[in-house]
Amino acid sequence: MTPPPTFLGMPPFPEAARSAVSNPQLRHNLRKATHTIRDKRAHVVGELSDWAELRAAGAAIKDRTLRRLDEYLVAAEAAVTAAGGTVHWAADAAEANRIVADLVRATGETEVVKVKSMVTQEIGLNEALAAEGIRAYETDLAELIVQLGDDLPSHILVPAIHRNRAEIREIFVREMAEWGVPAPPGLTDEPAALAEAARRHLRERFLSAKVAVSGANFLVAETGTLVVVESEGNGRMCLTLPETLISVVGIEKVVPTWADLEVFLQLLPRSSTGERMNPYTSTWTGVTPGDGPRDFHLVLLDNGRTDVLADTTGRQALRCIRCSACLNVCPVYERTGGHAYGSVYPGPIGAILVPQLRGVASGKVDPQTASLPYASSLCGACYEVCPVAIDIPEVLVHLREQVVEGGGHRAERAAMRAAEWVLDDAKRLRTVQRVAARSRRLLPRRAPGPGAAWSDSRALPEVPARSFRDWWVRERSAPPPQPPAASPQPPAASAQPPAEQNRIEEDDR
């Protein structure tokens, strides 16, 4: 199986991050955009008193679907076929690209329009089509900016989040004419002007394209219906105007019923764009004579997903609905941006999804992929905002273990094995503790070797003069403290001397 590609020439995350954090303009763009989106999300999520219940329902639906994924995929295939569509199965990126290229060539066309799709980026579809003489035109505004700028996406929701509006204007003025309708004279960097320039540029493509390629946010198994949610309307133009529609969909996108879809149509817009509902929610089921495309093809893609499904800890990554909420709260992503992750899936979700898709457990991945599980501070903010409750920190630690066991990070593996050897025997542990206590004044204040990067930003813990074990033994062996000797009790204040008592008794008689 051919694994999904990383961006060509990208170094391991620590090297890429080091370069990114030194770019003040990038950090400014990221901070402004992510804080704006996260604030909007927090506002609309706070409006729902049952958000926690919705979140739990979304996780439960995804888990139930993944446990019976084979059954739901077969049901979806049958429903799509009954509705007049054609289903294709692709084991990996190469097979999916070949299927799509063959379908486009069969129409006689050399151009396609595309709806924003993470999965087609995952398999490198645009590049594969270009190799076959087929040009793909991105129609999502942010994807258009990336394509015109010969750039790479850096965010799941907003691929051009690393660009500011002045940079976007320069890209439009410089590149639009090469791809079609040029930018209007005197174009400014006002958002409305940039959006209008994009509309004029794309309108020609929408009206002339005969073939469109899309992904899907969801695939409803009971009816074979595909769902795309978006904010601009470009997706609906692509899904309705062309004669042939080809949708490439990851097998984990299945939901069993329309009732299940209802939950996700509440979770997704609030978590992604900070809206109560998406401006455009497009659904299509097979083909309908006289309405929309005449031919519909669904390409169901595995590309490592069944391997992820086999990992009982890591499979929760397949719950992901691509909302990008985890990116917007991640302190690491905010400072490095998406390009440092070297994949179309950046941020916390990319740090757990990409290594699994590429097979990190096999120990045969490249250094760039093996570095991704370490691209986190494990603060847990990603888990708190995830609308389907993916415990990303748990999976990160799980994947770090796999990287080490697979032969990566030799220093860490050696340290863990040494710790195992010491902790496995009480006598060895006692000896090491006593040696450390007696030599504590000689221990360095900065960790040696690879540990130096860790200790440069943290204070090493003090080694106590006596271990807890020794303290406990000494306390238990010491004789128990004796209670203080009892002092003589003075007579009660009401007691009378004997002579006086006798006198009182006599008087009473």
TrEMBL record:
Give the Lactate utilization protein B C-terminal domain ranges. Answer: 406-475
Q: Name one GO molecular function term.
A: 4 iron, 4 sulfur cluster binding
- Organism (species): Embleya hyalina
Q: What is this protein called?
A: Iron-sulfur cluster-binding protein
Q: Does the keyword Ribosomal protein apply?
A: no
For the biological process aspect of GO, one term held by this record is: lactate metabolic process
Ranges of Pro residues composition bias in the record: 478-491
Q: Which keywords appear in this protein's UniProt record, sorted alphabetically?
A: 4Fe-4S, Electron transport, Iron, Iron-sulfur, Metal-binding, Repeat, Transport
Check the record and name the InterPro entries matching this protein.
Answer: 4Fe4S_Fe-S-bd (IPR017896), 4Fe4S_Fe_S_CS (IPR017900), FTHF_cligase-like_sf (IPR024185), Helical_ferredxn (IPR009051), LUD_dom (IPR003741), LutB/LldF (IPR004452), LutB_C (IPR024569), NagB/RpiA_transferase-like (IPR037171)
* Chain ranges of the 4Fe-4S ferredoxin-type domain: 317-390
